[in-house]
Amino acid sequence: MNQEGSIFNVLDYGASRDSKTDDTHAYMAAWKEACGATKDTPTLLIPSEKIFKLQSVRFRGPCKSESVHVKLKRTIIAPRKDGD
């Protein structure tokens, strides 16, 4: 779901932006494509709409591009320990 050259927006991968739904899968899918991109410098974009909820994640390489940018324009929250 590459758009605007090499920008990978987590919303395009199903992130819900409601601060209640676990968006980890969407973030990992966007990262996988960004890490595999070879055009320009890929950017993982976390846009300014709402708040995203994630479990613990690791964005790992090696990636095909020499570097990958992460552009965070909003808030990411962790779930509470009781599973909420």
Automatic annotation (TrEMBL):
Main location: secreted
Database matches in SUPFAM superfamilies: Pectin lyase-like (SSF51126)
Subcellular location: Secreted, Cell wall
GO biological-process terms attached to the record: cell wall organization
Keywords of the record: Cell wall, Cell wall biogenesis/degradation, Secreted
UniProt feature coiled coil, ranges: none
PANTHER family the UniProt entry points to: PTHR31375
Protein name per UniProt: Polygalacturonase
Organism this protein belongs to: Lupinus luteus
Lineage: Eukaryota, Viridiplantae, Streptophyta, Embryophyta, Tracheophyta
